[in-house]
Amino acid sequence: MTLQRKKLPIGIQTFAKIREDDYYYVDKTALALKLIDTGTHYFLSRPRRFGKSLFLDTLAELFEGNESLFRGLQCHGQWDWAQRYPVIRLSFGAGRLSSAAGLHEHIQASLDDNAVRLNVSLEPPTQSPHLRFRQLIQQAHAQHGQRVVVLVDEYDKPILDNLTEPAIARQMRDGLRDLYSVIKDNDAHIRFAFLTGVSKFSKVSIFSGLNNLNDITIDASYSAICGYTDADVDTVFAPELMDLDREEIRAWYNGYNWTGTSVYNPFDLLLLFDKREFRPWWFETGTPTFLVDWLTRQPATFTPASAQSWRSDLDCYRAFDVDHIATEALLWQTGYLTIASTAPAAGARTEVHAEPAQPAKCSASLNDSPAAAACSGDSHPASGGISGQAVLTCCWRTT
Hints:
11 strands; 4-stranded mixed beta sheet; single chain; alpha/beta
């Protein structure tokens, strides 16, 4: 029996387009329901081109009650389609903002777009963005009779794009902190909030006061919230596996892990199925400029081929900020490190252990970048294990 092939959703982040135009779709709606049923405010960090924007769009369509798009999916019989919620969507993914004034203008335009779509009136843009954001949330609640859903995509991009200019990055951070503080202060008007980005900045630096934000980045039950699992590849994408070595697919692309089910990067697999060629597709097109720029300015770092082991305290991940950035934290958050295993903690600290994985392919990816050319080639020496502390083991991703 010949399996029927569908369109490959390369670069498509719109849930409606995927569902209406017969593209392959990996059903994540059961995880969406779990989030909604068990909490209200969430944060998720994943590398770029991992499906964060598509998942946010799926949440938006679900809360807006667009029932026809979900027929045949896991959530369809478990959702009250009579309930429709006003959805506020903010995205910082497009373009590069290089000044506080540019950030201010972008936020004001986004708020105006949401106000028009939700049929509410806002004060003129002369008012501060965070005050207009508060007004938008409260008026949308009053206008629609339902609490508001707030979805923020690439929440950190204005900061990351300016990491090599710390003064500008701090201005971006402070402006975004004022904006996001509105979410905490308007809890009574918010049904659900979900923020995504590449990095996890410390709560003190950007989420000050937003202590009800549940970080599911390293949560085993949500490890596969973005990306494709082995089972997805064997079922959803079964028609695409013809003439491709299944084990080679695993060797090249499987292994991103956030302490649960390992996943494939969607962009890698979709380009493989389209081009029928094994190459580091995600790296060739998805390496964030800010990472290369930042690494080239570091006095010492390492490349996958030279590093044999890296151990550091997990606190460096929690303390990520404009003025305090650990290289291993940045590499992990951008997808060049992946978690391999964890061990229970006996003390307050946690140790992180990073190792190179498949270094031959590393040399065809990160080692060929401008950052690698600028590095001295010295690796940070591996420290010994810290007795009695949890160990978080990471491996280099190579594509």
